[in-house]
Amino acid sequence: MLKMNLESESRKYWLETMLKIVDVPLRALAEKKLKKTMPIETLPNYKESRSCFAHLELLGRILSGIAPWLEVKTDNEEEEKLRQKYAVLARQAINAATDPNSPDYVNFKHGAQPIVDAAFLAHGILRAPIELWEKLEPRVKKNVIDGLKATKSRKPGFCNWLLFSAMIEALFYKVGEEWDPMRIDYALREHEQWYLGDGMYGDGPTFHWDYYNSYVIQPMLLDILETVALEDPYWREMRPKVIKRAVRYGEIQERLISPEGTFPPVGRSLAYRFGA
Asked: pTM score, two decimals?
């Protein structure tokens, strides 16, 4: 009984923390007020200003994170009401971000960054196909597909970015759209070459000690293969190896957590350790 109470309190804390992070931006986008109200912070001389990318980045990364929660019904009545409430907000946010006539229509075409955050949006939909796809209106589905297709003109970097192209194609496959198996196969084969052992992949040919394995490489490899593996013998053969490596990486990552409950501040993009 004590264990059950502790688990309940822990889940309540995690849920409150998650909603504290996503409520304001998701609600603003659902109400088509995000661009009007969201502050943009960037260095004055930053090479590529983030202002035209921030809104798709916000939507994609929020949805990829909360999608597993949105998709699974719970027996807890209070939590279930929250889940349904935020699933509606998420669908409204998708509509606002992908409608070309919306004041919050996001950038899918300009610069290199949209392929990154469109992939996170695709990952979110792939993780919650009922709440974030089947329940969308046909008009919104078309807008989503049009936006994702617009990123096909972007060239991904020769690194973990190959998985962003592959993730978008995996979603096209999932929802019955025309898809390009070559983009998926290229990403999978290159990451197989970049595997370094003990659960770790290089980010391209070079190893980086950071959290990209945590929130890009490992989960995207897993979900891409979960979606398309049956379409190709090589992909089917690769899937058990990828799962085994992910388990090992999870063991290592768990051992990195400090007594304060944080990951060590190493590598690029230190804020990403929070997302790990």
From this structure: 0.93
